[in-house]
Amino acid sequence: MRFALIAALALAVPSEAWTQAVGSYLALKIDDAPLPLADRVSDTDGTIYLVEFERMVLSLRAGNKFRAAVRFKRSLTTADARGRVRSAPIQSMTVTGRYEVTGQEIRFITDSTSETKGVRMLNGTLEGPQRLSLPFDYRNGAVERRRVLRLQLTNDIL
Question: For a surface tag, which of 18, 76, 137, 152 has the fewest beta carbons within 10 Å of its beta carbon?
Fold first, then answer.
């Protein structure tokens, strides 16, 4: 009788369940392209937007807390031959909050601050105890894109 109960409990736990490693995850790819990655888009008025993604680090911390930091650069120009490239320096953005893991899904709940107003973290997928994929949306001019970050646990980032 005890054996049947133990066997039933063992079968109820999915064999693919794991605990996600706490630590720093570095984005190695956006979709299938390695970082850094540049995305160029033209608007209908001839304005050309260039976003260059430099680096993204996601830190999963004890107590189901997270901190995500992204570095990027935005440039703007026009298709007009006289148009000059207006370049901004490398910018950074940091988002904090908590996360929940259910099965192979990781869900992020951001802290509400004035800096993160309008930021929406999308649910990611655990690809292993040290790997995850995380979709994100961004707007480049009038074009909205969805990309997928591929992150790997890399505790020697700093």
Answer: 137
